[in-house]
């Protein structure tokens, strides 16, 4: 059968633009077959001239009595997409709704109220998390999640977190544009309702631009789902969350038995299947399946002090954008003297691109102090801050802080209670970062 396709990603406030698009298609002999995922509409040749009306609805509850009234007036229900019902009728059928005041009231009752009920709990949860983080910081004096090192670690710990942090301005900008367009429509609709005029229809160019932004939103959601899938297979996603979704879906299926809850039951069934599939993937699939997507560091095993008696780690976390390796080393003398003496702490970040490596380097250099910003003589992108801890200035214990940058890898090494790390150590470390070998 001959078919025609078109983008149908209209936001909820462009209901009149969606209706106008369907009627333009109907005017040239096409009939709506189906809207797919709220993105694409397929059309087939119409056997008789038709027209369309797009009306408000509550996505969680189907108003069967209202549909029956529309059916008596000649309008056949075709499909529900988000907050909209699509009706079809023979050409020339009287419109479903001609009173803009009643139409505005239906929007407030069916759509605006449902949106507020969905947004308020999310906003409360966000405020609660921020307050809890601020309280923990004030009580402990420790760094909050916004400190640079915690952010850098979070970028390596979770693929979903990395995507969200790196694209943080995009959903915020999209949300502002969406809210601005919604406020504009509310002003227009309220004015039309007061004056008894029909709701205005957005221009085709404006509607096409809004549809394009909605399509970008769907693509962004697909990227987030990809990140969730990688975290799930890699064992980074809390399976208890999926179990909660599955149990919640079962409760909805058991409680919502009426015909008016058909759509809600279908949504719960889909969520249950997805949750169970996610639980199965998280339990059965090996974590190594995600390794090919993640950044890899230049080395796998690290030991920088030949005299080390014990090396703790290395602990490596990697994501789509960066990898972080952390380890600790202690000398025999340091083990005898106590935890703070004879120790080395190391952190190594490897990023997919130079911009993130530049950001990490600048923060690591800031820890050196303003007097140690010049690279070490004879070396490029090697910085050192050294302090004597007493005793012989030449051979006594030191506190070193090294920052070394090679390509997209940033190494930070801090020592306490050791003799100063020498040139031989530095050459070996640079060879490790620049080559494929293992240091130790």
Description:
This protein is α+β, with helices and mostly antiparallel strands and 440 residues long. Among the domains are: 4-97, no CATH class; 308-436. The protein has twelve helices and twelve strands. It has helices at residues 15-27, 64-72, 100-140, 148-157, 159-166, 169-195, 204-233, 239-255, 262-284, 332-337, 354-366, 423-434, and strands at residues 4-7, 30-36, 40-45, 50-56, 76-81, 84-90, 308-318, 322-331, 343-351, 382-388, 398-406, 409-418. The strands form three sheets. A six-stranded antiparallel β-sheet has the order 7-8-9-12-11-10, sandwiched between helices. Helix 3 packs antiparallel against helix 6 (169-195), helix 4 (148-157) packs across helix 5 and helix 8 (239-255) runs antiparallel to helix 9. The protein starts with a strand and ends in a 6-residue tail after the last helix.
What's the short story on this structure?
By secondary structure, the protein is α+β, with helices and mostly antiparallel strands. It has helices at 15-27, 64-72, 100-140, 148-157, 159-166, 169-195, 204-233, 239-255, 262-284, 332-337, 354-366, 423-434; strands at residues 4-7, 30-36, 40-45, 50-56, 76-81, 84-90, 308-318, 322-331, 343-351, 382-388, 398-406, 409-418.
